[in-house]
Amino acid sequence: MKEGSGDDQNVAPSVYSHVSRPGSHRYKNAKKGLPFNIMLVGESGLGRTTFLNTLCERMVVTPNDGPNPEQAHIAEPMQFKHHTVEMEEDGMKIILNIIDTPGFGNGIDNESCFNQIQDYLEAQFDEVLAEENRIKRNTKFRDSRVHALIYFITPTGHSLREIDIELMKRLGNRTNVIPVIARSDSLTPRELVLFKQRIMNDIAAFDIPVFNFPDPEEEDDDENSEENAELRAMLPFAVVGCEEVVNEDGRPVRVRNYPWGVVQVDNDEHSDFDRLRYVLLNSHIGDLRDRTQNELYELYRTEKLSGNAMASADQQQQQQQPEQHQAALAAQPRSVVA
Ligand SMILES: Nc1nc2c(ncn2[C@@H]2O[C@H](COP(=O)(O)OP(=O)(O)OP(=O)(O)O)[C@@H](O)[C@H]2O)c(=O)[nH]1
User: Where is the Septin-type G domain (predicted)?
Assistant: First the structure.
């Protein structure tokens, strides 16, 4: 296993065997690999690094040793850390680009974090817009638009906090925001059910534009509509990150160990991690990419171009004003001064 820092490329075998999953056939022709860009956002200690490694099934980044008490009063600024991992999922090669955001939410005022992330997302749209307008296309252009933002919610068991609402509201129109309950093993099953309900109530009450699975009523395909209905009912996904891999009856099982027992990361009865992974890298990878292109980017493009058009109309008007002023003056009746 190799530690990843900066822009790194890791290729390693998976630690557990894959179950063949439907839905990925759409992109099987992508020989070079299907690029898929995800961003991880959440406060320090919620398990972003562990999630990244669990998702990639290898040690991409070595988790921190935890905060240093002597440095605890210093709020490190947020950074964007890039990791690239090549994966094979159900016969499909995926180039997974992960943008981690350590330092998010560490300050008292998180406005600058919100702005930085929004600017980052919009800058990727701007690159595509500039590329579209080029006369000669760059054949090596890399589309770095973020297809999904995994937002880690603190497992308080209460409801969404202001920081959660603000962030998801701000970014939901710029990327597919997928909220997850981080470290969900810290809640009892009953607490988890209630917490999920409260979060979904808040999402509806505050009109937060998170990614949702198509409404079964709107789906033609029975198989998809059944799956989407099931996934809708699971939201937000409750995730547990892998601490170690143990051998159980000759097969590797990813777990977290406790004095009272073991949580199996990929067991649907213990955590929604496996379903989320399946959604991201298999069943809904196409939907996430399509929505980024057809809805979110189009919305941004329209806003940007109409904003530019309005700005240039304003500018034109200002430039014309001196002439109009002269014309208006000329049209005015003159008082003849003797
Ligand atoms: N109980 C529990 N602990 C977890 C889980 N995921 C990670 N942890 C632990 O939480 C601590 C922090 O995990 P990290 O993955 O380093 O968290 P992070 O969000 O990347 O934190 P920073 O690197 O400080 O930004 C570690 O001790 C992990 O073992 C989880 O699902 N459940």
Answer: 32-307
Q: Which is the closest atom of ligand 1 to the Cα of 46?
A: 19
Domains of the chain, by residue range, sit at 9-64+73-311
Question: Which of 48, 50, 181, 274 is the best mutation target for the ligand 1 pocket, counting ligand atoms within 8 Å of the beta carbon and taking the most?
Answer: 50
Supply the pTM of this predicted model: 0.84
Contact 302, 309 (CB under 8 A): no
pLDDT in tens, 29-55: 567 899 999 999 999 999 999 999 999
Ligand 1 centroid to residue 316 C-alpha, Å: 55
Complex ipTM value = 0.98
Does residue 254's CB lie within 6 angstroms of at least one atom of ligand 1?
Answer: no
CATH top class, domain 9-64+73-311: alpha beta
Measured by CA distance, the residue closest to atom 22 of ligand 1 is: 44
